[in-house]
Amino acid sequence: MVAKEKNLKSGQRGNVPHALTVFTIAATFTSLFTPAYLNGINESLTIEHSKLMQERELLVERRNKELSIISSLKTPESVYKMALLQDLDLQLVNNE
């Protein structure tokens, strides 16, 4: 009878070390793979950031080019050329 009680008690205690072993293995794998996972995320974010910065540079360059075209169209020479192309008569305006 004493042997059966010892087996029951040792069986009940056997679950605790088993759970502790599973937890230790899970914690070990988590601690090993977390830095690699975070490095992968960091690398993908770095690549995404560099792509966005290149795209931003292209947009700024395109904007500057379009602004220069718009400003060149506002000059008197370009207004005169456009008037000639559209067969418009320009008259001199006196400020007197």
Task: Write up this protein.
The model has no long low-confidence stretch (mean pLDDT about 85). The chain contains two helices and no strands. With about 100 residues, it is an all-alpha fold. It is rod-shaped, with a radius of gyration of 39 Å. The chain has a domain at about 1-60.
Task: Describe the SSE topology.
Layout: H1 2-73, H2 76-85
Keywords summarizing the entry:
96 residues, mainly alpha, 0% strand
Brief summary of the model shown:
This protein is 85% helix and 0% strand. It is mainly alpha-helical and 96 residues long.
Q: Tell me the radius of gyration.
A: 39 Å
Please provide the count of β strands: 0
N-C termini distance: 126 Å
Shape: rod-shaped
Secondary-structure element string: HH
**Total helical elements:** 2
Instruction: Name the average pLDDT.
Output: 83
Class derived from helix and strand content: mainly alpha
Strand content: under 5%
Outline the biggest β-sheet: none
Helix content: over 70%
- Low-confidence segments, given as residue ranges, are none
